[in-house]
Amino acid sequence: MGISDDSAGAARISLGTFPTPVESAPRLAAALGMDMGQLWIKRDDLTGLGGGGNKVRKLERVVAAALDGGADALVTTGAAQSNHARLTAAAGARLGIPVTLVLAGEPGAAVGNLLLDGLFGARIRWAGDVDHSALAVLAEEVAGDLGSAGAHPAIIPFGGSNRDGVLAYADAARELCAQLPGESVSVVALGSGGTMAGLAAELGTRRVLGVHTGAVSDPRAVVAALASTVTAEPVDPRTLRLRTDQVGAGYGTLTKQAAEAIRLAARTEGIVLDPIYTGRALAGLVAAVRDGGLGSDGPVVFWHTGGLPGLFGHRDAAAVASGAPEEGSRRTASARPPAQAPLRH
Length: 345
Hints:
- By secondary structure, this protein is α/β, with parallel strands linked by helices.
- It has two domains: 5-53 and 161-322, Rossmann fold; 55-159, 3-Layer(aba) Sandwich (Rossmann fold).
- Helix content is 38%, strand content 13%.
- α3 (83-95) runs parallel beside α4 (113-119), α6 packs across α7 and α9 (256-269) packs across α10 (278-290).
- The longest helix has 17 residues, at 132-148.
- The relative contact order is 0.17.
């Protein structure tokens, strides 16, 4: 594999604080039966901008491309509790560029990411209970209206997952290698696919385990296609390491395994995960260690990709501290993807 030669010159602006720390997690490792010093956490929740998270790295490149194209306004899409939407709003505030968020669902309480969207000054256009295609069409309409009013808007891709977003996580993989030399296996939540794609493109598919969150219908094909936009040779989807056993009753639900993983991280390392992405990712790591698929061949790096505001926006958040709810018992409208189509964060 390897990154193609034409990738190095892609534009990038500074939005975050890098490098993010890599921290040992000895108490969490012990709880999982791993050796001391075997488990590490890459703290991409500490990227600085707007509450942090993996989207900051992507936006450094994706927004740079938009600005190079003459954009003076940004439009993007997502679920009501979209981390990507929140960080796009924060990026716009940092750069002095107006942001419109086209969100699935109906207006609700300003909690979690929605509270921060408003705080950053984003305009929100509610799309109702629509699928991804309809959400994208509405974003085009919003951009057209802005253009008619004299602006030059750019539509930021769903989840920041395009070639530029993938390159951002190839950068992150190189950053990790400088901090933790030698071969390790990275475990990461698989949402829209760009984060895993960038890691796999740089590190190789053998060294990355993605935990499917239910955000896309064919995660293997999505990640392979995204990774292939930056690699010298196409990525074979069959070579990707995936776990698809943590989706539970659906993307917006809090699973029993994710709730247990969130409590475990909090009570062993004082680190807070979210119900949709990192909670599922750690649950996948736990399952992989227990079934022998991870942990016997060297260090393991868990990528904490952020999402803390989404915890406060989830209806079942209070239940996490005391005990997991019955699987699928609640799906919060603020977390769900549009009807009949996975929502790519």
